[in-house]
Specification:
Elements lengths: L7 H7 L6 H15 L14 H10 L4 E4 L6 H7 L7 E5 L16 H9 L7 E5 L4 E5 L5 H4 L1 E3 L1 H5 L10 E3 L1 H4 L3 E6 L6 H12 L16 E7 L1 H4 L7 H5 L3 E4 L6 H12 L12 H16 L11 H22 L14 H5 L7 H4 L4 H24 L2 H9 L2 E4 L9 H4 L5 H5 L8 H17 L3 E6 L2 E6 L1
Helix pairs in contact: 12-13, 12-14, 13-14, 13-17, 17-21
């Protein structure tokens, strides 16, 4: 592989062609699309909805707004655009340069003057890597000087004239010249800063404190917002909305299995020293808890329930099971329904209650109701699809069993002597494989019967006792 040019003469000889950042994305995206490669690795469930909208926006060379509720991969999608940038681009590498100027068309005075005063072989060229060409900012608390710029009082004190470009401090957007800048939670951006974005979006022009300077900024600008605040009158000024090229609408997973795929991918559960076996029904229950929260009248649906809710709960459930495995010396580690008793730690604070709908209910009570609904829904599916009715009848005729997240799995074994062979056909795991797996299956059935009001339950110090009504 030939070495990269180190001065302007070598760069011209190399045949490098200058492109705007949107042209660069456009051309690299076309090559990726034509090759059949996965466009946005790690993004699940958007293949037929969000991704086509993004594809069109990239081809149209538009700035984009990602509109959706929290936890819908908006930031991941924005960061995913970086892969369509060139691996590295050349810039004029002089110490006093405030930006990564295009060697063929520098826009800062420092670079223009240097290029004009030196022979091409004397103009040093540096290379700006793909990953460094992306920056993002969270809107709350962001000031005009942060993202656009300000007069630098330190430079004035050092004797620089206020009328000189050198007196300016450049914010994030000018510094991302030839790169990508993302602003998260656009509606929370101060109106003064929104006004400052007008010229940048439409004219690619930076003006700081009325200083008579025009910078032809080359930047792809991305935004994210929640629909409830973006569409609220006065939160985002109309002229700014008008200048955003494309709006990409995100959404939560359309079915539970997709949600489970996202949850498992993002949870990053390490194997550890103890093997972990997570029955699929436990994954279904965790994801169904999130689905029910998104439907609950007690939870503010305008805010949404993030995918991080499922991810944090999944990790908590496995952590509880691992603790049991370590203390009791059980292998494999198998999560069970009683492990969900620890979800308060990972759930509370992630749910925003609807103050009108929840009335006097606490966040804990809302979570308990949502978990109970999730267990009932998943259990009823297993009864319908997998023939658990026979097992339900046997359990319903004579059950008195104590369960808990720190009880040995062997304590569940006695009840299983009365369970028919249909048991093993009901689950994707073999319930006879180990005491820990059997215990998880038992708790699922007991919790399901309780949710359907077939048996009663009492609770004392973290342990539950199920018995016939």
């Amino acid at each position: 592989m030939p070495s990269q040019p180190t001065n302007l003469r070598e760069l011209r000889a190399s045949g490098w062609i200058s492109k705007t950042v949107k042209q660069e994305l456009h051309d690299n995206f076309i090559r990726t699309l034509a090759s059949g490669e996965e466009l946005f690795p790690g993004v699940i469930g958007y293949e037929d909805t969000v991704v086509p909208e993004m594809n069109i926006a990239i081809l149209a060379e538009h700035d984009m707004l990602f509109l959706g509720e929290k936890g819908q991969a908006k930031s991941r999608l924005m960061r995913g655009l970086v892969r369509f940038l060139d691996e590295a681009i050349p810039f004029v590498d002089v110490p006093e340069a405030p930006l990564h100027d295009d060697p063929y068309a520098p826009i800062s005075r420092a670079c223009r003057d240097f290029v004009a005063a030196h022979a091409e072989e004397e103009v040093p060229i540096g290379w700006w890597s793909r990953d460094d060409r992306y920056a993002e900012r969270l809107a709350p608390g962001t000031k005009f000087a942060d993202i656009i710029g300000e007069i630098d009082p330190g430079k004035l004190a050092g004797g620089v004239s206020m009328s000189a470009e050198q007196a300016l401090h450049f914010g994030l957007i000018p510094r991302m010249h030839r790169g990508i800048f993302a602003m998260n939670e656009l509606p929370e951006l101060d109106e003064l800063v929104q006004v400052g974005l007008f010229n940048i979006l439409e004219e690619r022009d930076v003006q700081i404190r009325g200083y008579p300077i025009r910078f032809d900024i080359d930047v792809l600008i991305l935004f994210s917002a929640n629909p409830s605040t973006y569409n609220r009158s006065g939160k985002v000024i109309p002229q700014l909305k008008d200048r955003i090229g494309s709006v990409v609408h995100t959404h939560y997973p359309r079915d539970r299995d997709l949600g489970i795929q996202i949850m498992e991918q993002e949870a990053h559960i390490r194997p550890g020293d103890i093997p972990v076996v997570v029955p699929y029904f436990m994954r279904e229950v965790i994801e169904q808890v999130t689905i029910q929260a998104r439907k609950s009248k007690y939870i503010d649906q305008q805010s949404g329930v993030s995918a991080r809710f499922s991810i944090a709960n999944y990790r908590t459930m496995i952590a509880s099971a691992r603790q049991r495995g370590i203390v009791l010396g059980e292998e494999p580690v198998v999560p069970r329904i009683s492990d969900l008793g620890h979800l308060y730690a990972s759930s509370l604070g992630k749910l925003e209650l609807d103050l009108m709908g929840s009335h006097q209910m606490s966040e804990r009570q809302v979570l308990d109701a949502v978990v109970a609904e999730a267990i009932q829904i998943v259990f009823e599916e297993y009864v319908d699809k997998h023939g658990l009715a026979e097992i339900s009848e046997i359990f319903g005729r004579g059950v008195k069993l104590e369960v808990g997240d720190m009880l040995p799995s062997q304590q569940y074994a006695e009840l299983l002597k009365r369970v028919p062979p249909v048991w093993d056909k009901a689950f994707e795991v073999n319930a006879g494989e180990s005491p820990a797996i059997r215990a998880s299956c038992v708790e699922f059935v007991l919790a399901g019967l309780y949710a359907m009001d077939r048996i009663s339950r009492s609770q004392h110090r973290g342990r539950m006792t199920y018995e016939v009504e």
